[in-house]
Write a structure and sequence with these properties.
This protein is α+β, with helices and mostly antiparallel strands and 168 residues long. It contains five helices and six strands; from the N terminus they run αβαβαββααββ. The termini are far apart. Bound molecules: iron/sulfur cluster.
Length: 168
């Protein structure tokens, strides 16, 4: 209830941009849903013009966001409309992130969840090149250089040497 009160108060000055940073952390699942519904109602009623939702919870983005920007270790990995990120991710990190999520109606016995092996790098001394390199199953020599964030479609950009931007 406190969280929802803070959310309502945050709209009182008619903000152009509402930044919701880890707004569902430490909440139970049903409360997370209520918070997500509140964000959607803010948007649908025009109480805020734009929202930036920062979260580790992909499901809340699926419910609230038009566009998702995926970051890894402080760098942009992928940007695309929400449906594209969920259904047709191109960056290896995004792909592994989405495939690690449970699906409604699918039993563990039929499909084991796989996480992403390894850990994120220290940001005090980040690695050169692609920061996902140590965990990426597609990594090759070129990944020692930092990949550019390139447009591969009018509304889809990716930072990965394995993704071809020739169709943009
Ligand atoms: S640039 Fe290389 S290491 Fe980074 S995500 Fe692409 S293939 Fe993997």
């Amino acid at each position: 209830m406190k969280q929802r009160m803070v959310m309502v108060i945050s709209t009182l000055l008619d903000p152009s941009l509402l930044i919701a940073d880890e707004i569902t952390s430490a909440l139970d699942v049903s409360t997370q849903r209520a918070v997500a519904e509140t964000l959607v109602s803010f948007r649908d009623h025009g109480f805020v013009k734009s929202m930036l939702v920062i979260t580790h919870d992909v499901s809340i983005l699926y419910q609230t966001a038009d566009t998702i920007l995926v970051m890894y270790a402080g760098k942009l990995a992928e940007k695309a409309p929400t449906k594209t990120i969920i259904e047709q991710p191109r960056h290896p990190y995004t792909t592994m992130l989405i495939s690690s999520l449970p699906e409604v109606g699918v039993r563990y016995a039929n499909k084991k969840l796989s996480g992403i092996p390894g850990s994120p790098p220290s940001l005090l001394n980040p690695p050169t090149g692609c920061r996902f390199r140590a965990r990426c199953p597609l990594a090759f020599d070129k990944c020692l250089e930092e990949p550019p964030f390139i447009r591969i479609a009018p509304d889809h950009s990716v930072a990965c040497w394995k993704v071809d931007g020739s169709d943009a």
